[in-house]
């Protein structure tokens, strides 16, 4: 299998290295062959080529079986007036690969409950899978700017809502058969289209229960009743906000993975955390989010369920027994974390 | 002073009655005269007149010194396909009164810390004032709908951002001289206009510190470091989501007030909670959010600071000593809560 890696900026290269090392260790043990090819994206790509998503990168990603991304962005490139921004590379890549469904699983490992801002009793049985629409909405709508006005258009087509809804319901079938759809249908036209489309598609899945929530209520319910939710499907910007809110419950962003999937097999896998410029280059970033994203890559793009589960079990072992990196209350370096996961594979 | 009350739907009339009773008790004690005039808005207005904001209501509000609103909406009127919705009345009223700055203070009373989903140590010193832009953004932008597409336009002018920013900085001067501006400037054009305008206006307030946060990070930081924030200013939809998230920290929505202010004196005051159809008509709704909104009315529209503080102290007394309504772990009815606050005025 051909895996393109896009280490990107900040701690991106450090956590990508760790994830690749784990994938190689898994390949060795299971007799798989993975070919890795590294390309530029984000700030480092702007520095080298002037473009946040160089053509060579995009071409390689399109031919790959899966794409692994570290992180993009950093203070060096974040002048709001700048014409070219690292994030544009990531958004363009998501669009070009057609990865419309961004999966963000959230579980709270018991060993980390003490790090969560939430009370322990709230965290029991939290197991949520967010399915965030990733290639539509205000992220990709028309924008205008004059001296004294700016606009962003949020747009959704029925077809865009249908496909991400189906993905959410299919995932719910394999879980607890419950889907919560989040919108702002009391105010937004796109949300009314969202709600009526989700309701119609839900009828194709009589075995799965659907409920609707308004995004403001959901922001509250994620804190007061987090264990009530199974699959949560929502549009791009609401998903951006709600998944970061939910991520705070896990105690650290450092260990949360994501998978972005389209109709085809090629998926885009990245940890939820950003480029973390404050700790970049120090070898202390937590690589578990990246390593768990690699597990999702094996599961969703390569069909290697056993290997994916092996990695997840190894990460759980490390969370239970240590070592722990700084963000989760320990002192271990990125490479110590990586080595501990590899040791736990056997 | 002329106060228009808009009891609205669900528990709206119950909590409005309680707030009016407290205002009358305060008037008696301080020698003020308040004239109350009640009008229809929301679902009950649709039932009576076909319109969510009848002309008579709007006219009365425009002539008033202040407007007090209970809540609007309910299952009876929430078919997403409906042409007329209760919320439209509220949105039209906000626009017509020009109340562009929605103030939502958040403090966590020690007696209620056990009800919060957040760990107690996180709640220490939490004292945030949200200033949500209330008459712009996707709430009021152009909407389109065809069989297979929907759009919402989010639009901001520099002037709209300037005025709400100035309000936020002026409020910060009276508090801890810190403003956090929240946007999504790495993706949205309106957010880039927002950020550059806020940055420019901040220079007029050298005594106040400004920081910018992205909305997704802020959704996380409100949980991990809530005591870091003083005044938080943001656009309409982000404010809707973040203030509900923050409200969850307080342990109950039932006791959070809000004030919506424009350039003039007339303000719109409402508890944060909705119409709560599940408990409407039972006399058990918590009236403290409404009563605290009445205190904000005295402060911001009538300039009665002492009377406002007296109400706030009485509510704090009731929170400390009881009685408590159901939502905050007790059994007291709406009228028992109201009477306890009135008794504590002396
Ligand atoms: C970097 C940014 C453009 C991105 C987004 O908003 O989608 C990030 O916050 C994310 O959630 O992956
Ligand atoms: C009822 C609804 C339109 C309203 C809003 O979204 O502004 C409410 O959620 C609020 O926050 O006051």
In CATH terms, the superfamily of the largest domain in chain A is: Isopropylmalate Dehydrogenase
Average pLDDT value of chain A?
Answer: 96
Distance between the termini of chain A: 23 Å
Name the chain pair whose interface involves the most residues: A-B, 64 and 64 residues
H/E element string of chain A? Answer: EHEHHEHEHEEEHEHEHEHEEHHH
Computed over alpha carbons, the radius of gyration of chain A is 20 Å
* Oligomeric state as shown: homodimer
CATH topology grouping of the largest domain in chain A = Isopropylmalate Dehydrogenase
Number of strands of chain A: 12
Helix proportion of residues of chain A, in percent? 40-55%
How would you describe this structure to a colleague?
- Two copies of one chain form a homodimer.
- In chain A, strand 6 and strand 7 (149-157) form a beta hairpin.
- The first copy, chain A, has helices spanning 12-30, 43-49, 55-63, 86-97, 120-123, 158-173, 189-202, 215-224, 236-249, 288-300, 305-321, 334-343, and strands at residues 2-8, 35-38, 66-71, 101-107, 127-133, 143-145, 149-157, 178-183, 209-214, 231-234, 257-261, 267-271.
- Chain A is globular.
- In chain A, 42% of the residues lie in helices and 20% in strands.
- Chain A is of the alpha/beta class.
- In chain A, the strands form two sheets. Chain A has a ten-stranded mixed β-sheet with strand order 2-1-3-12-11-4-5-10-8-9, sandwiched between helices.
- In chain A, helix 1 packs across helix 10 (288-300), helix 1 (12-30) packs parallel to helix 12 (334-343) and helix 11 (305-321) packs across helix 12.
- Chain A has two domains: 1-105 and 253-346, 3-Layer(aba) Sandwich (Isopropylmalate Dehydrogenase), CATH 3.40.718; 117-249, Isopropylmalate Dehydrogenase.
- In chain A, 59% of the residues are buried.
- At the A-B interface, strand 6, strand 7, helix 7, helix 8 and helix 9 of A face strand 6, strand 7, helix 7, helix 8 and helix 9 of B.
- Bound molecules: 3-isopropylmalic acid (2 copies).
- One 3-isopropylmalic acid sits between chains A (87, 90, 240) and B (186-187, 216).
- One 3-isopropylmalic acid sits between chains A (186-187, 216) and B (87, 90, 240).
């Amino acid at each position: 299998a051909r895996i393109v890696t896009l280490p990107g900026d900040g701690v991106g290269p450090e956590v990508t290295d760790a994830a690749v090392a784990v994938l190689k260790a898994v390949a060795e043990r299971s007799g798989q062959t993975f070919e890795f090819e590294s390309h530029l994206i984000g700030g480092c790509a702007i520095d080298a080529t002037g473009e946040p998503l160089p053509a060579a990168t995009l071409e390689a990603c399109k031919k790959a079986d899966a794409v692994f991304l570290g992180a993009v962005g950093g203070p060096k490139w974040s002048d709001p007036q700048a014409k070219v921004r690292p994030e544009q590379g990531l958004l363009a890549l998501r669009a070009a690969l057609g990865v419309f469904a961004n999966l963000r699983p959230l579980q709270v490992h018991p060993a980390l409950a003490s790090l969560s801002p939430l009370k322990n009793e709230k965290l029991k049985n939290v197991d949520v899978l967010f399915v965030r629409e990733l290639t539509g909405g205000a992220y990709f709508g028309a924008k205008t700017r004059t001296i004294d006005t700016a606009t962003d258009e949020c747009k959704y087509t029925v077809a865009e809502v249908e496909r991400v809804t189906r993905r959410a319901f299919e995932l719910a079938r394999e879980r607890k058969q419950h889907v919560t759809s989040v919108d702002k249908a009391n105010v937004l036209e796109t949300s009314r289209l969202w709600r009526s489309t989700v309701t119609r598609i839900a009828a194709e899945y009589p075995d799965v229960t659907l409920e609707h929530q308004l995004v403001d209520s959901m922001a509250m319910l994620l804190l007061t009743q987090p264990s009530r939710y199974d699959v949560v499907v929502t549009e791009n910007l609401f998903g951006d906000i709600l998944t970061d809110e939910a991520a705070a419950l896990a105690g650290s962003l450092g260990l949360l993975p994501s998978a972005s999937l389209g109709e085809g097999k090629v998926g885009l896998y990245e940890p939820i955390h950003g480029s973390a410029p404050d700790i970049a280059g120090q070898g202390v970033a937590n690589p578990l989010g990246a390593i768990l994203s690699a597990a999702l890559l094996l599961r969703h793009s390569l069909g290697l369920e056993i290997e994916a589960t092996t990695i997840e079990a190894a990460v759980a072992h490390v969370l239970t027994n240590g070592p722990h990196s700084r963000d989760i209350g320990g002192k271990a370096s990125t490479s110590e974390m990586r080595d501990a996961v590899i040791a736990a594979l056997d």
